[in-house]
Protein: CHAT domain-containing protein
Amino acid sequence: MWKPVDTRFYAKRLPVAIAAIDDGGEANFIRTVLEQFNMVTLFHAIGTPEDFLQVIGQGEENAPPYLIISAHGDKGGIIFGEYIEEIDVSSLHDEVMLPETIGRSINLPGTVVINTSCSGGVEAAGKAFMQGNLKAYISADIDVSGEAAALFIMHFFHQLIKTESLEEAWQHAAAYDEESRSYRLYVPDGFYQLTPEGQCNKTTY
Structure:
């Protein structure tokens, strides 16, 4: 697992990788927030679908403890858009990388992945990401605003620093408002989601 020297400082810093697809504006804001929380970030500026597949297929030795995917999405897939003829787009279907493609490619043992793309938390996407032996996968099952995504991540990591509990950090962040409650927490045997009343329900596969 990726362990920069900052993890051995007297005041240890949590390492978080960010994969920025599209213009990166949201990703850069998230990076700034995390670094204000005294975390160390690794920023992946994704240019092509193959770049992204390399990031999510790094394997155990290089897998980051946390990976944030900053992207647009549709029906559980990640939108990449159009490319010139020289770029390999065989992993895309109508400019979108579908969950089944991600499931065949992902290899990030022990990583917690947070995906900001709209509908990235639908069950097909959650199951696909968890095929990579992740510790957990977090994403919203509906279309959410960029502001909501950034707020969720801010609340999540702020709480994680204090409690070091993944479940508590997710529940704290998801309880903020209606959009935040759409963020599901996927684990190997199912997923958690908050009800409108704030109750935590688990759905098993």
Summary: The CA atoms of residues 29 and 150 lie 8 Å apart. The domain at 11-80+89-204 is CATH 3.40.50.720 (Rossmann fold).
